[in-house]
Every structure is written in C-alpha cells, then in structure tokens.
Fold these 4 entries.
Entry 1:
Amino acid sequence: MDVKRDILWRVYLSFILIVLVCILILSKAFYIQQVQGKYWRSLSDSLHQRIEEIPAARGTIYSEDGQMLSTNIPQFDIYIDFRVTPLHEKNGFLFRNNIDSLSLSLAALFKDKTAEKYKDELTKAFDISEGNYELRKKISYREYLQLVKFPLFKLGRYKSGMIAQEKNIRLNPYENIGYRTIGLARDENKVGLEKSYDTVLNGRNGRQLVRAIAGGVTVPVQEGEFEIAPEVGKDIVSTLDVFIQEVTENALKKMMIQNEATTGVAMVMEVKTGKIKAIANLGKVGEGVYVEDLNYAITPTEPGSTFKLVTLLSALEDGNVTLNSRLNLEGGVWKVAGQTVFDSEKHGKFDASVLEAFEESSNVGMAKIAMTHYSNKVDVFFKHLSKLRLDSTSGIDLVGERQPRLVKPGSRLWGPTTLPWMAFGYNIEISPIQTLNLYNSIANNGVMMRPYLVNAIQEEGKKIKTFLPTVYNAQLCKPSTIRDLRIALEGVCINGTAKTLFKNSLYKVAGKTGTAKVANGNKGYGEGIFQSSFAGYFPADNPQYTCVVIIKNRPHAPIFYGASVAGPVFKEIADRLYSTYIQNKLDIAPVFAMKDSQLFNYSISKMSLQTIAKQLSIPYQDSSLSTNDWIQLQGKGKTLKAAQQVISDSSMPNMTGMKLQDALWLCEKKGLLVKCVGKGKVIKQSIAQGELIIKGQQIQIELN
C-alpha cells in the first residue's frame, strides 16, 4: 500500500506541476498579448521598411479666363508617436511643460473638444507610450500650417512625435457647375475632361523608402528624399467661360424646375472658332432637385423639328426648291403610305411658300419636299447627311460620345414612311453637340468647325502645346444656299413659331424651334413625353455665339412646345451674353477719358448730394421725389439736374455712374454676386436695367 501511495503522490505532484506551468504559460501569453501587445506590435511594425509609391499631384484644369475648374488641394492625417525619446527625458518634462498650451491651441483650432478633454486624452496616450495616436484626420492645408506652429509641435517630428501624412484630394471650386464636362478624378470613375486628358493631368508617381509604424501608418525613413521624385501632372486650359457656364446652367435649371422636366442640356459655342464656352447637363434626381448626372450633350436623341434645317439645306443645295417655291400644306394633315403626317399646330393653310412652311415648322411641308425630290434617290439625301457629319461623331475632345443612329435603306427598319418622317426629325438620332455644330456652320457662312474644349496644355504656367481652331469643311454648301438658310432661320424668329418670343428683342436672332414626341424607354410613345428644343445663333447679322437647348419634359406636361420651353432658356442666355460681351463690342465706340465737369451721368444717394451741394454751394435742379433714396445726377458744363431713380426689389436698376462702394452695397443688398473689372465709376453692367434678377445671380460691372 505504501508503494502505491508513494507512486500516486508522485503522479499527483507531477500533474499539479504541469497544470501550474500551463497556467503560467497561458498567463504570460495573455499578458504579452493584451497588456504589452500594442508595444510589441508597434515595435514589430517599426522594424519593417519598404519602398512605397508616392502619388503625383494631378494637374489643374482652368477656364479660358484663368479660373480654376478642377484642382488638387492637400489634406493631412495627423498622428503622434509618443515613444520618441525626447518626450520622456527628465520624467517627461518636455511633454508636461507644453501639454496645457497645446490643448488650448487644439481646442481653439478644431472646436470639437474642450482643452481639458484634449489634455486628458493626450496624457493617457503619453503615459502608455502609444506609438500611433490618431489626433485628427483630413485637416486642410490652412489648419496644418497653424498646427505646426503650436507648442510642442513646433519642435519638429523627432522631438514632438507629430507625424503628418499628406494626400491630395481633387476639388471642383465651382462644385456642380459643368461637372459632367469638367469631370472629377475619383479612382476609375473619371468623366469629362478629367478622363479625356487623364494621361496629361496624371503626372508620374514617385518612390520613397518608408518605415511602418503601428496601425499601418508609414513615415519616410529620410524626410524629403525619394528613390524617384514624383512628377506633377500638366495643367490644361479649357475653352469654358465660367460666366457663360453659370448663366447657361442657371437659365436651364430655372425652366426645368418650372416645367418639372426630367432631363435637359444647353450649350454655347463661339461661332468663328468652334470653342465650346458652356455645356450644362441636368437630370432630375428628386422633387425640384437637378444635378449633372449624365452628359446628355454627347448622347444621341431624336432631334425633332430642328432637323428640318437639313431637309431645307439639301433641297436648296440640289436646286430642287427655292424659298419662294409653292407647297400644298394640306391644312396640316397629309396621308402617306397609309400613315398620317400632322403639323403640331393646326393652321389650316394649303398654299404656302417653302419659306412659310419652314417658318411655321410644317411637318407636312418638309415631308412633301423629301418625298417629292428624294424618294427615288435616297442616296443623294444621305450624301448630304454625310457631308454634314451627321453619320459620325462630332469629334469633340470628350471621351464617351456615342455614334448617331441612322435608319438606312436596306435595313429591316427602313420602310415607306422612314424618309418623310426623317425629313422632320424622326427615325434618326443625333447628339445635341451635332445639332449645335450644324447651326454654327450656318452662322459661320458655311464653314464647319470642329467643336473643342481645350485651348492649351501648360507646365508650370508655360504653354507647351496649343490647340488651334480646326476647319472640318471650308464650304459646306453654296453661298446662295447659306444666304437662303439664314433668311429662313431669321424668318422663324420674325414671322414664325418664335416670333412672340423675340418680338421686342434688341438684336436679331436666327433659329429654329423643335418639338418631338419621344419614347419612354421600352414603354414606347404612349406616355405623352415631348422633347422641346431650340437651336440658333445671335446676333443674326453678325453671329458671335451659337446655342442649343434641349429639354425632355415630364409625361403629359401641359407646356411642351419648343418656343415655350427651350426658347425662353435660349433667350435668357442670349440676352445675358449680348448685354455682357456683345453689345459693347459691336455698338459702343471707344471711350476716351474726359472731365466730369464737361459731360457725366452719376448715381448718388439724395442725402450725399444735398450735403455736397450745400458745402460747395453748387446749384442743381431737383425733380426727384423727396422720399427717394437714390437719384440720377446728370450734368453738362455748369448745369446739374437731379432726377428720380427708382430702385426695384425684383428688377435690375441702372448703376451707371455709381461709385464702386455704392454699386457693391446695392447689388449685395439684392443678393447678387459681384465681379468687378477696373476702378472708378460704373460704366457697364452685365445685367441690363429692368431685367428680372434672382438671389445668387452673378453680375459683372465694369468701372471707368
């Protein structure tokens, strides 16, 4: 029994010792993992060095007048490595001597925590020697410049432990304006110019030796030294004009909200060069909410009646008709191949000239021209389409432009009604940019230009490549054809479907309205969706800009005609551009400086005038109302006259003669954004007197 007890005692003792050893091992493992884990992991990370790719800063996209449209701005993630030796010397004297003032500075800068909270959190991280304390992420460059001047941090990275990880983010200073054209560089989802000129803007990434610290954060082994230095991308200067872009987008958006439209596009092109000055693409994403969701400018759609220009051009060029040729409009209803062609507005006309048929936008008239002269020689008609580049893309320097869709003879979709319907803009899909270029060619006396968006590529402010206007076709058709087409387009705005719209216009407009019934995807044409359009140029007698507006209305919209929906948008854009850029250039002779005592027109507050006149003993005739704040003071020689100047809340006053201080006060009181050119007194204003204004609208004022 004693032997057995002795053996059992030894076994139990061994078992107990094994259990104790296991407990000890497990306890040590738990202590290393949970208590010392952060320290050992950070120590392990700090022993790892590697070559890391350093992204290059992307180039900037500018407008033609030098405004930044898309650019890089630096952002910083800030960490603190509390393991650095200087922080712990002399019992942490450096840290404890600066923690109060540092906490106060951080609280004042970021305003997210109290100074006491900052002090408490930083002290806890210091006491455990945390190697990767996250102080703040995504701070701006301005905040970073302040941060590096704070107590402790101003001593540098190796004494304070502060680590700043810099990264560049892409910013559009004008936010959503022109987004689909300018684009935004986000990983693989680039669009617009950002995508089209990606290789130019991208630059070349660098390589740098870095050391990993805790949490995957890396710091350079040698600050400022690279294996390969990153090369900044090149800049591009676009043809876009910020003012024209803003005017175009605001006019389009206002009408789309008013008519509850679903999509819309408006574009402006410079006639002589083919430069695109503005592209606005808007899609409805919520009730009254519109954003630049797709580039409708380069997406084909049925053009409707704006395509009638092609039919008329073909017939005139081939000598089949003249503007005075007679047509039977059949009262606006005509049967062909078992189908019926309707004019959109009942006019009851029968005998009419070709010009009248075009001015009234007669579907019957255009269909009859096509059937009479091209039903047996369709290839001749299609040769005109090819010459007008309507069977290929426009060639604009934007990635993503889709091919137009033409139903051609021999295809399964071709039938006896294809040609007559094509004559007034159905059975064909072309992009709005193609319509714009077509009308611009007529404005440019038959010279077809390539539409383009980039003027130059530059590096460090110096142009290294310049893009000049390119002529696609120097003579699109005979001069006599161009002359007749311009007469017809002007006739639309004088006698035709747009006569009411431009009745009291200060300048001549040439253009064409369009109203097309469009399909709602697979649901077909039954939902009553109409696309309103207007294409034209101005001033008609000396064209400077061509503009196209296309708006897709909601189902069963009560207002859907081109002259009522797209036309007002065109007119608002044209009015603003005419008063800002064209009127003064065409109509006003050079202004030479002259003394105010000889001839002047001056706006002044009534109180100021009374004070000045009294002190200087200047006599003047006052015909203004006694309660009026502003008066218009006119003078020649020694004669001064003061007349009432009414300042309306909803319309633009005449600011001619006002001092900049007064003009700024008046505009800002009305909620306008002011851009000033020059100094002195106001001599020009981009929003004409009496024009309706809305809050947030931009106005440019020129001083003498």
Entry 2:
Amino acid sequence: MRIFLLPFIIGFAALLSQVIYMRELTVVFYGNELAFSAIMANWLLFGGLGGFLGAFLNRKLPQVRQITGFFFFALSGLLPAMLFFIRISRNVLDIPQGEVIGLSQIYWISFLTLSAPSLCLGLLFTLTVELLRRQSHGTKRIPTYGYIMEGVGSAVAGFVLTWLFVRNLDSFQITCFAAGLVFLGGCIVWFGFKLGVPLGIAATILLTHWAPPLQDLSLKMQWSDFKILKSTNTPYGNLVVAKREGQINFFENGFLIDSIPDYQECESVVHPPLLLHPDPATVLLIGETSPEYLREILKHPVHLLEATELDWEWIDLKQKYSKIRPDDLPPKFTFIYGDGRRYLKKSPRQFDVIIIALPEPNTLLINRYYTVEFFKEARKHLGEKGLLSLRLPGMANYPSRELAELIQSIKKSLSHVFPQVIVLPMQSTHLIATGQREALEHAPADFTRVLEEREIETRFFNENYIPYYLTRDRAQQLATALEKNDVVEDNHDFRPSAQFYATFYWSAYASPRFKDVLRTMMDVPQAGLFMLPFVWLIVLTALRHKTYFKEISVLNSMGWTGFSEIGFEMILILAYQAIYGYAYLWIAVIFGSFMTGLVLGSLLTLSIRVHGRKLFRRLEDVQFWIVFYPLLLILILILIQHREIAFIPAVQYGFPFLAIIAGFFGGLQFPLAQRIFAEGKKDNSHSTGLVYGIDLLGSCLGALLIVSIMVPAFGLIRVSAVIALINLTSWWILKLEEKSVAAFLE
C-alpha cells in the first residue's frame, strides 16, 4: 500500500488547494458565484493539459522518478505562493477594495493564479501512475488503483476541511499543510519511504509554522487602503471590518455590505415605504441591523420592529464597532438570528412593511431575496395594505441599458405577485410593491406632508432632497427605459436572471467587450440550445466510417461525461446556495461527497473481469444510466421549488448524497475507458494521460458554459434537461459503433 500513498497525497492536496483558492477568489471577486465558472474552468483546463503533458513525458523520458520528484517539490512551493498572489491580485491590477471586478478580469486573475498549480497536479497524477505501473511491472489495473486512491484523498480532504480545518485553521495554515504533504510526496519519490517520511513531516511542520506571518502580511497588503479591525470566516463567507477616514466598513466576500455611519443611504431606504403606509405598526427589516436603520424606523409610529441577519456574526460585529450595548436597544426591537426567508416561512406574524435592505443581487446569496418565490412568501406575511420595499443601484440622469434590464427584471418579478409596483429614482432606485388596488400617492408633496404630520426630523431625506430626486423628468426617463427593455426574464431561485443582469451592469464599466460577448451568447434561442446535442450527433455520425473514429467514440463519451459531472457538481452547489445561502461552507462537503462516489464507482470496476466487446458494452451501459441522473435532479428541483420541503433536514442533507451518486457514475466511466484504450497494446503509458486529460477538458468546458452562461440564461432545470440530451446522444453514438469498436478491440 505504500506506493499508493502518492496518488492519495495528490488527491488530498488537490481538493484542499482547490477549495481554499475558490473561497479566496470568491472574496476577490465580491462573492459572485458566476465566478465559479472561471475558477473551475481554469483549474480543470490546466489539469487536463497537465494530464496530456504527463502522457507525453511518459513516452519520451525513461527516468520518470526524477521528474516526478521535481514536480512534487515545485508544487509544494507553488501552493502558498499562489495563495499569496490571490490575496494581492487587486493591488497588482490596481483595483480598489469594494470595487466590482469585471468578468474579463475574473478570468485573467483565475488564469494567472490557478494555471501553474493545476498543471502540476494533472501532470503529477499521470507521472505517478506511470511510476507505480513500472514499479509493479506493468500491471494494467494500476491506473484504476491510482484513480481510486486519488479519489480517496480528495474525499477525505473534503470532510476534514469542512469539519476540522476551516473551524481551527486559517487559509495559509491549510495551504501550507497541503504544501507540506506534497513535499512529503517528493521526498518519498527521491529518497524512499524510510528517509522521505521524516523529511516530509519535518517540512510540513516547518511550513505550517510559517503560515501565520504569511497570513498577516497578505491581509495587510490585500487591504492596504484600510485598517483591518477584524477578519473572520463564517458559514456564509469571509467577513472583514475595516476602517478608513473615520468610517467603519463591513465587507462580505470582498463586497461592501454596510458602512457606519451612512445616514443618507439609510434614510432613503427606510422612510419612503414607511411614509407611504398610513399606519406602519409592525415592520420587518431584512439585511440590516445597523443602529442608524433602527433609529430611523422607530421615528415612525412603530409598535413592533424585527430585524433578521443571515449571518449572526454580523450582528455581534456591528454592535461591537458601532459601540451599541444590548441595553441601548429599544424594547420594541427584536433581533432574529438567521435566514430571513426561513423565518418568514415559519413566522405566523403579519407585517405592515417589509424592508429588504440588501445590495443588488450580485450573488446567489443575495439574489434569494429578489426572486418570485421569495416575493410570494413575503406577500403571505403582509397585511391588507402591506408594503414590500427593496433597493437597486441608482441612475445619474438616464439609466444605462444594463441598469434598466436589472430594474425591469426585478419589477417584472414583483408584478407576478403584487398588483401594484412603483419605482422611485432616488440616490438608489427603490421598488415598492403592495397588494392593495388603490394607487399609492408618491409625489414629493405626499412624502413631505407625512414627514410633517409625524414630526420626523431627518438629515437628508427632507423637503429639499425629495423634490430634487423625484422629478417628473427622472421618473419619465426611467419608465421609458424600462419599457424598452421589457423582454428581460423575471428572476427565480433556480433561474437567477437578475444576478446575470447585475453582472452585466458592473461589466459595462469594468469589461465592456467581454460583456458584449456574453450578451451575444445569451441571445441564443432556447430551442437552439436543445438542438446542439443533435447537431453534434449528426457531425459524429458522418465520421462513422473513418478508422480513427473507433477511438473518438470512446473519447467523446469520456469528454461529455466530464462535462456532465462538473455540471452536476455546480448545479448542486448553486441549488444549495439558492435555497439555504451558505454553500460557502458546504463546497468542500459536496466536493468530498462527489469524490466518495467516484471512489465507490472505481472500486466497482475492479470486479468487472470482462474484455473486448463485453468491456465496451459496460461502458455503453454506464453512459445509458448517466442519462437518468439529470432527470432525477429535475424532479428533485421541481419538488423543492414548489413544495415546502426545502428546510426538512433530510432534504438538506440529501445534497451530499446526490453528489455521491453523481461521482459514482464518473468513477465507473474513467477506469472502463482507460482499460479499453490499454487493451491489446504493449505500451499503454499514454492512455491514462489521454483519457484523464479528455475528462478534465470536458469538465473545463462544462464549468465555462454551465455556470456563467447556461444557468443564468436558462435556469437549473432546463440546463439539467440539456445535459440529459447530451448523454443520450453520447450513448447513441456508442450504440451505433458497438460492432466497429468490437473489431477494434479484438
């Protein structure tokens, strides 16, 4: 078993570094889950290229051991170095903290930081498997054993990271621990087990010891424009409290969530909906627990005020740094620790006003409060004249197309639930929805009149501010812009259109050319998306009689399986985030569960003793059953979306089980495809790298297209249907070519 320690180390280090990089890049990319596509695509692309490079080196280099040890040592230095570069990447590109990064910059930063370590990991897997094969005198099942041990390492890493490392170690300590293990692998390769293990353990201890200074230095450089008061990780993301010029700023995953004090924004969020309601006795505030918001709300005749905060640690931080003691809070006020959506589902209370005081839906975490499904839940808890209020970015004079699309998407979503929706073009754009039929009077004079009647004193929202923003011309300009963009999609939990429009809005400033490319791809008709698998089927069928097509049919199956497998992982992560809001913590659990399934599938292939045509039929059978997995996902997503079962513990903890099933199919596919290529060949050293590389390149394509384009444009359910069609065409190609492939094998 000693020789299989190397692929275990590769798998363990790969998942640790992948998840840590993903979490850190999420902070750099302001928490936008669409950035997962860039992260995963670059990671998988260079992993696949590393597999191809390893296949080439296996055939050209007689001495694999020396080159394998070299790349182990090189990777041990790359892992912490790339984490440091991720932390300072904004400084290198001169992008201030709090400023949204464009999509093109997301891809470039991912490319620069992930290419080298991912290439080394893909290369090392192929080299290590070949080294083990030579030591075992060419045993053909060595690639399967290596694949299993790599999966075991990744599975163990996923659960250890989530339940042990994340709770007790910072990012640099975890990464340096992974680097120490990789150094241990290099020592074993070069110096043997007896000498290599003590050297590797010493290096691991030394690297972990150096981690805290690197953590502190990188944070100071990352937030060089601020004085860091607090930096911590929670289940929902990375929280940073930073001070600059007397203002305390709160960042979540790199995105500015709140500032203390910020009276102007606070007053413009709180007062419009409360002034429009004749008697706002009960108020629910979602997303803000700052003292300024509470004080402004309680200037109205409010008898009960409840405020929910998704991340309980924010409440403690805001109380600490705003210098509020629990005794200072009014008796009318109650903190609700937890998710606002979940609270509304369980609460029997009716509210006069619900205020959503959150940023625009740049992330799925925030987008959950801007969807048709949430609006339906909110209306159940509003009184007869109840109001729901939320905010979006404001316009200078005339709104851009991107901003108009974002506003119109949310407005259409509200209109599905509420008969009346008004839009107020103030410093931010405010949307107020109500179930009452009689028109809401929202002229400037109506606001100032109620302010005087209630004797409310304000700093900014007054008789000068209100007429300045709420002019007839501004309202007409906004209404005209919204009418021009009426073709936008409404926003749903599992079809986060508003998140994509928000990304468009920021990309118009940061990367306009890249935005145009994405817009072109977004304009592809849905019917065209469903036709693409059939077009691909026609293309490959036309090549059926070519001699090289016998191998292409198997590689086609492997590539689209990789595409599908990464799609299954991403759909599970995005669905979990859309429902529960804390996939930041569960990413490693889902990845680890997927790798557990992969190991189980690979172990099952060891019992398959058939050869030739029968072996190919097993590959064909696996491809057939993969068709049904996305159909199962569709059924589950529909049930969760339309039935109130999402918060049943069995449903929540069912996500890792679904990941195990997805990984199981991938674990079956790779060993079968590799054995098909190895059969009948004296030198099969390149087959592992070839199949491994095609698998990762298919996964790269899936990460690139599914997360950043297909899911926002078509939704999780339709994307799952497309993946089912893709696998159906792959199965049909294998079925058509069964006899030809049998001849090729025999």
Entry 3:
Amino acid sequence: MKEKIKLSTKIKKSISAFFGYFKSGPDLFSIALFIIAAVVIISSQSSEAIRDIGNFEAGKVADRDITASIAISYLSEETNEQATTTTVRNIEKGQRIIRKGFIVTESEMEDLKALYAQFPKKDPRNIIGFSLLILLLYSLFSALRGSIIIGRTLTTSEKYMLAVITGSYIIGTVLLNNLSPGPEGFPVSLAVPTGLFIMIISVFLGTRPAMIMALALPIGAYFAGAFDTHSYIIALVSGAVASNVLHNAQNRMSLIKAGLLIAAANCFAVVVVLLIRQAHIMDYPPMLFWAALNGIVSGMLTLGFLPPLEHALNAVTTFRLMELSDLNAPILRKMFTTVPGTYSHSLMVANLAEQACQDIGANALLARVSSYYHDIGKIDNPDYFVENQTEHNKHDDINPRLSATIIRSHLKLGVEKAHNLGLPKDVISIIGEHHGNSVISWFYNKAAKQEETVDSEDFVYPGNPPRSKESAVVMLADITEAAVRTLEKPTAGKIEKFIKQLFDSKIEHGQLSESDLSFRELETIKTAFVKVLAGYYHTRIEYPNQKNDEKEKEKDK
C-alpha cells in the first residue's frame, strides 16, 4: 500500500513538473511560434498541384512552377473530326508540369487536373509525421538554449529573443522556399540573411551560443523541408562565419567589416556548390553576386536592428558599452564640474576594476563603464562626501544617523538616475550593489559613542551583496581606492598588506558570497590592484630637488 502511495506521489510530481515547465511566458511563446511553424510546414508539404489549382487556366501565364511530387499514369481522350482516341499519358516524379512565365496549354492543364485527382485530401499520416517532426525540432531548440549547452541561464528577454529568431528563421525559410525565389536551381539560403540572425545572437548572447545556433538553425530549416543539401551548405558556412566575426569587435563599423567577411564566405560556399553541381561557367557570376549581396545586407541589417534591440531588451552589448565609456557624456561632464573628487575617484576605480577583470577573464568593459557611473548618486549632495570636501566637514554639524541616511541615499539616487539615463540593467545592478549591505562603520561607531543602544541595521547600506564577478570587483576597487588614499607614504608592500585586510573584511561579512569569485581569483584581483596602485603612487614620489624648492618657498613666506 505504501509503495502504491509513493508511486502515485512520484507520478503527480512528474506531471506537475511537466506542466510547470510551460507556465513561463517565454516557453508559452516558443510553443505558439512552433505551432505556427507546424501549420506552415504541413501546409507547404502537400503537392503543388493540390494548392490553388483554380489559379491556373489554359491560355493564361503561370505565376509559378508546378512539379509533380509523384509518378502517375492516366487515360487521356483526344477528339478530332474523325474519331475520339484514348491514350495513356505518363507523368514522372519531379517532372515540371507548369512553367513559371509561360502560357498554360490545354495539355498541361489536363496533366495538372490528373495530378490533383490523386490527392483529393491530405493524408493524415503525413500530418502526424510532420507534427512529430516539429515536436522534435522544438525539443532540440529547447535543449540547445538550456544552461548546460549555453553555459549560463538565459534571462527572460533573452529567451524571448531566441524564440523569435528561431521561429522567424524556420517560418521564413519555408515561406521563401514556397515562393520559389530566383531562377531554376537558385539556393533558397541565398535569399535568407542567415548571417543577420547569427550576428544578433552573437552580439547579445556571445560567440558560443551563436555558434550553436549557427549549426541548429540550418538543420531546422533542412528538416522543415525549406533547404536542400546545397542550401544547407551555404547557410551553414554563412552562420559559422557570422558567429565568429564579431569576436572582440569594438565599434559598430565592425558590423560592416563582418558583412564583407560573410560575403566572402558565402562566395566560397557557392563555388563549392556549383562545382558539386558541375554547373555551367555562366551560372557563376549571378550566383556569386547574390552570395556577396547576402553577406553585405546581413551586416547592414544588423547595424540597423541593433540600436532598437539594445534599448528594447535593455541589454549590455560591447557596442553600447563603448558608447557609454565616452567621458564626454553629459552626466560624466556634470560629475567633473559638480563632484570633481568623486569624478577622479571613479576614474581610478575604473582603472582598477578593468585591470582586475581582464586578469580573471571577466567583462572588463562592463566593469570600467559601471565604475564611471557607480557614484552618480553623489551629484545631488556633493559636500557630504569626503572626496569633495575642502576644509569643513558638514557631518560634524549633524547627527550620525542623519549622516548615514545621506550617505546611503546616494545608492537609491544613483539607481534612479541610471534608470532615467536608460543605462543597461547590468550597469544599474552594479550601481546598486557596489556597497552591498555592509555597515557604514564610521557613523555607526560615532553613534555608539553618543547613544547607549545602537542598532547596526540603521546604518546598513540598502543594496544587495554583489551577484556577479564584475559587481564584486567594482565593490573591491571602490573600497580599495578610497582606503588607500588614507595611507601615508604608500609602498607596494604596505598597499598589498592593506588590501588583504580590506578583502578579508568583505569575506568575513559575507559581501562576496554570491559573486562566484574563487580564492584564486581574489588573489589575482589583489595582485592587479597592487600593480595599478603602486604604479600610480610611484609617479607621485617627491624628488630631492622638489623638496628643496618647497622649503625655499616656505622661507620666502
């Protein structure tokens, strides 16, 4: 009895888990797209003679080719002035019955009607087979977008984007194949900007997911019946090159160069296909033209689609980060004039964070840009932050609790300003996390001296501990740069020892527990910080002549 109950419980859990998978928006959206794809594919797999036979009429010009999908024989009656004769007419599989652009003859119309008679209705076995094929394709793409293959868990917006790209590619290729674009023997894949789809994936998700989809999308189109072997080869080459051409790209003009490289790869693939076909030499120029045009158009379309997609998905891309790294941006110029001390501090934090992220293999550009903007919340109250103070400290005149409130507010104000500026979500996260939920110890200790009981929660920053390596590095760079300023005559050894104490304190208070940083990476970060700071303070050493000049100036006074 107990075994039956356990088995029943397991079955219920399995069913619940199965249906729970379809509760998320991206999954339901993907299913809807694949249902549409199934309808398009199944409807396109029926014989050309079955579809729209009423559009053809003897004596009129045909708007498309019709090819026999099966071989048939039928009796044809021919009437003349003397008698009516019956003959057997044969139609071979693959035989072209109607030619696009030619006038339909009575004989051709008779062949078309005979072929139509062989398919009075769709075979349910065909429908079931292609439905199962679509299910297999859906399972394949669901597996490929999983964290095991991609290497990380995709966000909701990324899942939506991948579903749209996959559905659009398969549905689009099937529809284009049915339209029979171009002359006879024209590969459908030359009319499909495969490079566009793959480059978008590369920009938003990275090279690895792009390479995976460069293999998967042409396979999906091939299984859907949109591509033949030659089209598949061209699409595969185009996608494989597109997935790699944007690696380490620094500006949007790289997309034009990428388009040219894809064009060259397309031309090479076309030459291979034409050689396999043993095509005539006159077939080469037009095919190479379309191959080159496909690559160039893919690059230009990617250039046009990226800006709206970046803002719609609020995503971090290399191109957007490069634009945000411009120190002439209005908000950074405002920092330079309003909070010069904070501005100088942010530049130094950026140098530290960028070097450390490069050394551990994290996103150095994201860390640098986030460092530029991490303290934009200080613009509203510049005089309450020590780096902007000259002589008088305003905190000496107010309660430590109020001081803590003002200090903490720069996080909330920074996040609000970042949202108003339309900064990427990853940059906003780092702005809100660069202090974690640590205690503002200076004012907490000051309050403890003035009051009998003090709750440390009243002096805690309102953020979350860093949840990415880049965020953790910016936090460490921020506290390191600010703290090292207090050292007298800093040397490399003194700086290294001080940084180790700062790191140990963050680890002890759990500020790095969610960042996935390893101890080896923390050592690498520490070494990077020491190298940058030692080089920076070395340039500020006073030389003997400089000291003598300063003493003489004091005597003159």
Entry 4:
Amino acid sequence: MKGCFARMFRIALSAVLLSAGSVFAIIPADAQEKEIPKREFRGAWLHIVGNKTIATLSADQVKQMFLNALDSLQEAGCNAVIFQVRPTADAFYYSEIEPWSRYLTGEQGKAPEPFWDPLEFMVRESHKRGMELHAWCNPYRVTLEESDQLCKDHLYFSHPELFVKHGKQLYLNPAEPLARSYTVRVIADIVRRYDIQAIHFDDYFYPYPISGVEFDDQDAFSRYAAAQGFSEDQKADWRRHNVELLIQEINDTIKTIKPWVRFGISPFGIHRNKKDTPDGSGSLTDGLSNYDELYADVPGWAEKGYIDYCVPQLYWKIGNPKADYDILIHWWDKTVQNENAHLYIGQNISTFKEKDLQDPRKDQTERKIELTRTLPNVRGNVWWPGWSFCRNVCNIFDNLKNNYQRYPALIPAYSFLDDKAPSPVHDIHKNGRLIEWEQRKSNARDPMQKALFYAVYCFPDGVPVNIDDSRYLLKITQDTSYNVVAENKEHGAGCKYVVTVIDRCWNESRASRIIWY
C-alpha cells in the first residue's frame, strides 16, 4: 500500500513500533486510534538560566545546539518555542538597555565574539520550522547565585534603591514605580524590535519564601501603601497590587505596540490551597501558594483580560498526596474559563514515567494527555524542559512524534484579539514539482491579516476536501511554495492539495482552489 492511503492505513494499525537508537516501545491500539485535535497549543520551554555550558561553546556550537533542539521539537509536532531571553535582568539578545547575559559569554556585559544575536537567530529558525517564538523573561530576578558579578553599567550601580537582597539573590523591588517602568521599557524594546509572537513570564514574581527571612520591602510599604489605599495589616494585598500594576502595564504596552503579540504567564501550579481559602475555592492540595506566597493572582489577571494565556506548571504525578495532577488540572479547568485567556498545561516530562494508577503496566502519559484533550477549557500543553526532546527523555520524543502529536496542529485562534479570517491565497498554481501561491496584497498590508504561516493539506484520491480533519494537514510553513515530491513521501496518484492562510492570531482562511497531482 502506498501513496496518501498509507497514512490512513497506519491509523488503523493496532500497534506501532517506535525506535530511538536501541530503545523501543509499543503504542497501545486504543491510544493510536484516538483523534488528534487540529488545533492545540504545543509549546516547549528552552531555558538559559543556570546553564553554564553555553558560555564554554563557540558561536557555531551554540547555534547547532539550538538548531538540534528546534529540529527535535518540530519533528515531535510542536508549534511554539518559549525561549528564555531575560534570565537575570540581562539580555540573551542585543540590547541598549540591559547588559549581555553572563549565560552567553560567561561575563555579564561582554558581547559575543564573533557578534550574533541569539533571539534574532531563534526567531528566524523557529519560523522556518512553522513554530512560534515566545520571548521568556523574568521581571524581577537580578542574580541567581551570590557569586554573580554585575557589570559596571548595570542599573544597580546608578539606582541601588530599586533593589532588594533576599537570601543570596538580588531582586528588583516590585513596589518601586521606577523598577516597574524600567521593566516595561525592557519588554517594550523586545516587542518593537523582534518578530516574536508573545512575551512570556513564568512563576517568579515576589521571590520564593525563605524560612525565617522576610522580603525587605518595609521601607517601600511605609512610603507607598497608605497612598495606594492599603492599611498596615494589608501588606499581602499591597504586594499583589504591585505585581498586578506591572502585569496590566506590560499588557497595555504590548498591545499598543503590536496588538497581535500575546502576553502569557506560567504560574506555580497551586494557586491557593482549599484550607487557606475561607470560601473553599482553593484546590484540595497542601503546598506553596502562588497567591499567598508569590503574591500573584494569575486567574484574576485572566479574568480582567490582562493576559492572553495561562500555563500553570502542573509538575506532579497523578496521585501525588500533596499536589495531585488530576485534582489540579480539574481545578484550573474550572477556574480559567474566560474566553479572553487560553489555558494550557505546563507538563514536567519526568513525571510521565510514573505508573498509571489504574493499570501499573502503563505509565501516566496516556492519562495526562487524555485529560488535556477532554477537559473543556484546556487547549494544549507546554513541555518542560524542551531540551529533553533531543535525548528522548521518558520516551517523550517518540511518543509525541509517532502518536500524540503525529500530525501538525494549528494553535487555537486568539479570536478575542482578532476574529477576522484572512482571504484565501492568491494565484495558486503548479510549477513542475512545486505548488506555488501568494497572499493577497491587501491582506499582506494589514498587520492583523498578514500571513504568519500557511497550512498545506493533502487529500487522497476519493477523500473529499475537509480542512477540519487533522489527518490531512501536512505542514505549517512560512514559505509560499511546497515541493510535492521532496516533502510528501506518501504522495500518491490523484492526491488533492489545498493551502490556507494563517494570520498572526491564528485565524485560518478558507481553502484555496484544489491543485491535483
């Protein structure tokens, strides 16, 4: 059996043999037959902070490391890369505001030699692979280790009053208006100069608590709290207010510069424990609270429209006695129901090796994926850490590539930012082995309608064209041509191809006219 029918045949197979070197696994028939959604966020975090290896490599070696990661993510069906670019109030990109990151060259403020811009490189290479690039920033952290040396031009030396030492680390003080405006300026600079699809913050707002050590912001509290309407016993509320001011201002700034660029937050997985909420609204968990100890009300930001997506880090196994993944994913699904903010799940790859509670012969992969695809408000996953795909940790690369993400997927449309679909492609035609097309010029001139990518579909002879069926989506590409012979190994006689336009908010055009091959 050959041609496009081969794909249909494989769907019906009862088992698929996967290989990664000498490692093999069998995918159960029932898992193989489950429908793959056409729209699903499939992101992965590529972290820089704490990675001291990068600074020991040449520019070419670092680029190859990044390319290997991107190739693995693309092959595993991912459609978004969350790349850390501001780890410790320094820049993993060219900036005239903040110094070069120590994690790139080994010394803060030292430019790479030969010169190159990692963010520019990753934007370009991600887009080549049909993947978004989200710029991951930390708003307040300044040092990671006590031995970290700040360069002479760092903001700390001109405005030390904006900083707080907490434990062994240095932080910008979230209460200081100048610290907030400085952070907003940094983010605005990234949004203006780079073709990113989102700004991303993770779980670090006020620092994680240290036993017996209070975050030293009493002076700022005395200066600002009363004028802001907070009494002496409302310090926690005041801290949450400080963070919310930053979040709101960043979102407003992003949308003023580029209305299509999103703002996403990835909080610690427990918002509040039920035992700590008088109304019982928290989750049935017993762990650190993002609301009470990091002073971040992420569901509140989603409700108010200050963020466009939320990715709670559910880094525990199903059955964890203090933080059960099953309990938490249901809690977040019921809590973030606002149509103006998407909900994705932060997945810790290492927990997927844990045994399934109902069938210890299996791990928890199938159940976790099932939950993300059946709960009504969950629209995808973000994988941690993304570097694990290169090593196939816990068989994640094989399982996603050959099963759960075996077809490409469009990101769920951000219709609350823009719900107007672009026009179909213009002048689609055959040119030898190529299918070529153009976007209509009127759409290309419109910032909200301009093509981010194109989707290429192939339907076997006898199968009607239906772009809602994920099985026939071949590729998401920024190119305006497709090589039928080189790119579709399953091509058979009588195949029908159509192309659609995907705009910056992932609205999809109608299908083009059919091209027969």
